[in-house]
Amino acid sequence: MGHFDAGGAMTAVLKFQNLTLGYDRHPAVHHLQAEIAEGSLTAIVGPNGAGKSTLLKGVTGTLTPLEGRITFGALGRDDIAYLPQQSDIDRSFPISVLDLVAMGLWREIGPFGRLHPQQRGRVADAISAVGLTGFEGRPIGSLSGGQMQRALFARVLLQDAQLVLLDEPFTAIDVRTTADLLGVVRRWHREGRTVLAVLHDFEAVREYFPDTMMLARELVAHGPTADVLTAENQFRARSMAEAPDTDAEICVRNAA
Ligand SMILES: Nc1ncnc2c1ncn2[C@@H]1O[C@H](COP(=O)(O)OP(=O)(O)OP(=O)(O)O)[C@@H](O)[C@H]1O
Predict the structure, then answer these.
(1) Is 118 part of any domain?
(2) Residue range of the domain that includes 125
(3) What is the model's pLDDT at position 60?
(4) Which residues contact ligand 1 via a Cβ below 6 A?
(5) Is the ipTM beyond the 0.95 threshold?
(6) Residue 34 located in a structural domain
(7) Helix, strand or coil for residue 215?
(8) How many domains are contained in the chain?
(9) In this predicted model, what pLDDT tens digit does every residue of 188-217 receive, in sequence order?
(10) Is the keyword Transport in the record (predicted)?
């Protein structure tokens, strides 16, 4: 479960090698070189449009690199649980909280499988762990934003993945719900899972996330949170993000 092997070397769960990701050949993340240690709890921060969500989409495989690559240590890509931004989720889909959460067992039961009693118990445990007992039959469209986020966390809990990706999990979520869900994140960390979370609240990052990666299209800094969240790095990130994007087409830097 540790970050380091017997020789003290870091065990990487994920490696970004000269990674460029983008849309229609317009890069959003440039030439990223970084490694994510097994069991680490890392916040991804940076200004709007910095490429944070794009990076997570690269890890899930939704986006194929324009250049460079992403490699997975001992893990396969199917050992990832991903919580997208709330805005990317279709709440009009007519399913209950129970069905949404039970989708976390999809790998075990397949698309049309029935839940065994033992699996029903695990679904109930996950719903209880996020404080949603009593909401099982509610259509997801009737939930508040915070209740929906609790349900999505329960689904991730059931997925039992070694790598957990969270995209702005606490945006527009109240203090109490955030505290409860941060408890779930700490549990994953204690269990030795690797967690990457896109966050905007630096106070929460300082308090709960030992490591931070700061992006502004390019990597600004990556390492222990106190070393990364400096005023100087924040200033650099802002000026990099505000600079006009001269990469109208695929970036050719380092290509020569
Ligand atoms: N589907 C898309 N098609 C085209 N461009 C996109 C798409 N999604 C994102 N982009 C662009 O890629 C860049 C990075 O976007 P991304 O969503 O990764 O930023 P972010 O750091 O997550 O920002 P925020 O903090 O605002 O959520 C932005 O310039 C954005 O406009």
Answers:
(1) yes
(2) 12-242
(3) 94
(4) 23, 28, 46, 48-54
(5) yes
(6) yes
(7) strand
(8) 1
(9) 999 999 999 999 999 999 999 999 999 999
(10) yes
